[in-house]
Fold this sequence. Notes:
The complex is a heterodimer.
Chain A: H1 10-14, H2 42-52, H3 54-72, E1 86-88, E2 94-96, H4 105-112, H5 136-172, H6 174-189, H7 192-202, H8 207-217, H9 219-233, H10 237-244, H11 249-286, H12 297-306, H13 316-340
Antiparallel strand pairs in A: 1-2
Chain B: H1 2-29, H2 42-52, H3 58-70, H4 86-121, H5 126-140, H6 143-157, H7 170-173, H8 175-201, H9 204-211, H10 216-245, H11 248-254, H12 259-268, H13 274-302, H14 304-313
Helix pairs in contact in B: 1-13, 4-5, 4-8, 4-10, 5-8, 6-8, 6-11, 8-10, 10-13, 11-12, 12-13, 13-14
Amino acid sequence: xxxxxxxxxxxxxxxxxxxxxxxxxxxxxxxxxxxxxxxxxxxxxxxxxxxxxxxxxxxxxxxxxxxxxxxxxxxxxxxxxxxxxxxxxxxxxxxxxxxxxxxxxxxxxxxxxxxxxxxxxxxxxxxxxxxxxxxxxxxxxxxxxxxxxxxxxxxxxxxxxxxxxxxxxxxxxxxxxxxxxxxxxxxxxxxxxxxxxxxxxxxxxxxxxxxxxxxxxxxxxxxxxxxxxxxxxxxxxxxxxxxxxxxxxxxxxxxxxxxxxxxxxxxxxxxxxxxxxxxxxxxxxxxxxxxxxxxxxxxxxxxxxxxxxxxxxxxxxxxxxxxxxxxxxxxxxxxxxxxxxxxxxxx
Amino acid sequence: xxxxxxxxxxxxxxxxxxxxxxxxxxxxxxxxxxxxxxxxxxxxxxxxxxxxxxxxxxxxxxxxxxxxxxxxxxxxxxxxxxxxxxxxxxxxxxxxxxxxxxxxxxxxxxxxxxxxxxxxxxxxxxxxxxxxxxxxxxxxxxxxxxxxxxxxxxxxxxxxxxxxxxxxxxxxxxxxxxxxxxxxxxxxxxxxxxxxxxxxxxxxxxxxxxxxxxxxxxxxxxxxxxxxxxxxxxxxxxxxxxxxxxxxxxxxxxxxxxxxxxxxxxxxxxxxxxxxxxxxxxxxxxxxxxxxxxxxxxxxxxxxxxxxxxxxxx
Lengths: 347, 314
């Protein structure tokens, strides 16, 4: 309302009817933002840090590329991972495409000017075929699927079993903590291999056994990290405040403390994935993992090893994929660790 | 201090006892036939079961097993090696495995320390980059893959080393497996040594020592390395256990008659030999617990600060 409007009469002033233009919202007009020193959210900072780290980006690209190839690789050609490529010749004899080296017909023609001289001259096998005549390109990516499945399972195990166990043990403390930590110590003292071998007595060999073995061993590292974080945080004032306001233990643990421990937990997940993939490869190599004709990186390395003196190229694709996966996850883990706890920030 | 050590030893023994009990119960109550051979008649199997006391109650069996175990007797295998006494079989295997594992630990620690020290002293130069590359490769590639490559190139392409392990020329034929086993240790140790040394070299007391006029090897070995070593012991302990327990694929590939191969044989064949699984499980667990115990005590000796805090916790 404008004060400078001259008042003509008392009656007129008393009968003043509000006008639509009397008040106006300021909107964003007068809010000043300091763009030079804008505060960032925690996660925005983490993301910026992560993507500034060249190694971490390389790791991310490697894992993403393997993920895409694992999804698309097996369907990129017409061969299934357990199909034996063969054709029936004029005499009614089956001829399999066993043990072919990697071949791309048009490149071969380009460089040598000739076609391949055998019955599979027009077929493309990017990684060659194995001794039985199965396409190694398809099998390698099929195996990578298993490795990534293991990575996924590890995340679930770590996040659900390990994290809850550690958080609960650390939060309640006292006798509960002592008992729970003794259990961890006992589990930790049984070597992974012994657990697997006892499992091999009970269960059928296969991917299920690998997953159960990981389930029994993989949560321990995470539970230790989660417990340590919990011990650091649980004495803070906001926990006390929440408790005073009547929050239950589980609300405090999972709704209020968990978000504040998430950094070290994510880092630990990233570092436990390579171990899990290694374990699967190793179990499949030994012969208690994946069952034929299914394949995983480990069983492919074993196949390659069995034929290494005659067909040395066979062992390369699975080993390279395995090493790249390790490299990728390790780089991502390193990058996340630095991004989530930026103590080197001022350097 | 002695009270702390005693407490740790008692705790380790109790843990070991619980583990043995759990393993025993698990192995005994599992369904399945410990004698997978099809040539045996039902009567023969029944005889063997009675002979091995498998029909007694589980607890009775456990106490009998423990009684034999205190005498150092692991009993007999059920299917592997025609039921030969486990002790005889295991003695050879353990000695083979430990000798190769020991070689690998020595080689890995020595070369790793050397590489780490050189990298830290040449920070940012070629050797530093080389150390980083070696540590990345060591972490990303499993030891058996190294073994396969070494075997392919040095034993198959140029027949310099034997293709398989031969106990007649023990040292010569254990070079390839020991080197490939040591790569993870080597890379981890070199990376840790480098990082720790870089950190210690930036600290005030090293600067003080330098300003007093100390330089060269005295400074590096007496001041820098000694303080950098404590965290390295922490890393080394689980690696030693891994070398002794994780060697099994390497042993299988290189045909070494060791505990790893025995383990694979006892689970990966057609049947599972319960008694071997049990014996090897006990062996592995006690190794693991023993080494962890030694490390815990060693910390206290190396760094008095850790001892104090451990006492505070207990």
